[in-house]
Write a structure and sequence with these properties.
homodimer; 347 residues; alpha/beta; Isopropylmalate Dehydrogenase; 2 domains; 16% strand
Chain lengths: 347, 347
């Protein structure tokens, strides 16, 4: 298993990215391809380069945070994002992770890897854990701001496979995020999506509301990428705020610190905060493209990168992209064989 | 100051509603009109009826949670929602609060009180407090699921006045909730709204993201009612979850309970949880109608109702509805007098 890592993107690149990647190589027993400035990687990776199965690919161009995604990809063929994605395409890496410009990572995946046949809109699936040890998948976490009902139906199917494989669930409960539980409530988008999901063979449990997220009412939370982005970042922000008050508490009084750790563990708050902490899950997976691409958070420190690499490994091992392709084929086949429930909505 | 209270709506009606109303009457020195079943009110309010300035208005009809809003209002003229709203219209009550069917409360407000001239879409303004003691206003918290840019521009102006009056802010920072900070990011709705807000005379600070909510980056968070509903309920759900883990901790070990309270206070978590608890703010205010209407949460217990009545009192005292009408007039006037910045977007 070889994971390609962009050490050139993210707020704490390259140092924290390299640190996280080295930890991941040791912990998960994987090979690494580090993409970035050769000399910088040598400085930070140091003697590990000889001890671990690490290859360095020098990438002289850098895509910055604010660059226009498509222009960046077209104009910077020697950037870590373009080269890393190409390595996946060529089969030289099993997955690529980047904490750089998300739009550029998505654009590179679309152009270089391409969409799986039958997928119109690849989507970001983000694992969230508001309850200790009980993860759920939010899809789309931000790849498609404006969506149509058939896109949300597609996200549900992509999420279903990912939840089965990566969360290890047999029959994931699919919920549609809405402003009311009732079938008759919602926007044009959610009303129509509800009907599509009802007709699908998924384990669709109906509409769920914002407060159901932390109740883990659904395993897969289906929403458009605008709402998904805002929900994910709202949760992250609260996780940050909770971590901060914990840290302030610690600083005030070191006796309180020790009492605090014990108590937070007692009441389950420690792991709750951990769950709301984006560094814990590491990154979101781009589902629907031919290959494994993990988008790590821009603010990733070493721990987040290590966890994102772990996620990349699990996703690639399961061959999630191939399973998605098979699922679409079988649904299309069933559809043409006369089961109208399985026909995809026309684009 | 007389507040009309629907004791017939909400999950814990009538007992908890009456209990909260009685507390509010004592604490805020206000008069009450309790609307519901006469005999039931007598049972729960008991001897307070003689001690406090309370009037009872018997309402033989009940609007249930799942009823179609407009049909309920038209078919049940003797319900607490219709009679309570009419009391505000007639000037017999300064405000009306209800924890009943939200749609029906909004419909009654539209039909009976009417919209303020110049307002196309009244919106729900909800006070949220993710940081201890630092509230911000989320608008629209759920009245309008589908919106156009001029509606969001309107919400910003409504929220601006409410934040000035009820949060006591001189020059509220208006932020547009979006899936990216950059001006060029967003959906068609947020991109166009951004341009309208830039042209306004508001203190528009630009786009804010989900994580900025708990950073209190903006005083007024402008969004459509679909996103607003989901964000509000996501925050509420987390508040509930935090309260729950605290309670579990307490149950495990009463010594830990005492240590726990001290510690949570030390680190600021106690007040943070309090801030995320919807009962603390009590309810959302419907802005843009002629009169003061507070929508309390369906799950309101006595404390939430008491706080919702407190909010109703503050809102009515400030005459927020009249200030909104004046603001629209002055902006329209400025517009016709040649300042193109102040012209409202045509409907």
């Amino acid at each position: 298993m070889i994971i390609a890592v962009d050490v050139d993107g993210g707020d704490y690149a390259p140092k924290e990215i390299i640190k996280g990647a080295l930890k991941a190589a040791q912990e998960y027993k994987i090979g690494l391809i580090l993409l970035g400035k050769k000399e910088v990687i040598h400085v930070h990776a140091g003697h590990y380069l000889k001890k671990l199965p690490i290859e360095i690919v020098h990438c002289p161009q850098t895509v910055t945070f604010n660059e226009h995604a498509v222009e960046a990809i077209k104009g910077k063929p020697k950037s870590a994002i373009v080269i890393g994605t190409s390595l996946v395409k060529q089969g030289k890496a099993d997955a690529f992770i980047s904490a750089g410009n998300t739009g550029a990572v998505l654009a590179a995946a679309f152009f270089i890897l391409g969409k799986i046949e039958g997928v119109e809109r690849p989507a970001l699936g983000a694992i969230i854990t508001t309850r200790p040890h009980i993860p759920s998948l939010l899809i789309d976490a931000g790849a498609n701001a404006e969506c149509r009902p058939n896109h949300l139906d597609e996200f549900a199917h992509l999420g279903n496979i990912y939840a089965k494989q990566v969360l290890g669930l047999e029959n994931p409960r699919i919920g549609l995020l809405n402003n009311g539980e009732e079938e008759a409530k919602g926007t044009k988008l959610t009303l129509e999506t509800h009907q599509l999901l009802k007709k699908s063979k998924l384990n669709f449990i109906g509409n769920i509301e914002g407060h159901d997220i932390s109740l883990n009412k659904a395993d897969v939370i289906v929403t458009d990428g605008f709402t998904g982005n805002i929900v994910l970042k709202t949760l992250e922000g609260l996780g940050d705020a909770l971590l901060k008050v914990r840290k302030v508490g610690h600083a005030i009084d070191s006796a309180a610190h020790l009492r605090g750790r014990a108590l937070l563990a007692d009441v389950g708050l420690g792991s709750m905060v951990k769950g709301m902490d984006f560094e814990e899950c590491g990154g979101a997976c781009l589902l629907g493209v031919k290959g494994t691409i993990i988008v790590a958070h821009g603010r990733s420190h070493a721990r987040a990168i290590k966890n994102a690499i772990g996620l990349a490994k699990r996703t690639a091992e399961k061959g999630v992209d191939k399973l998605i392709a098979e699922d679409i084929k079988s649904r299309t086949k069933a559809g043409t064989e006369g089961d109208p429930k399985n026909v995809n909505t026309p684009v």
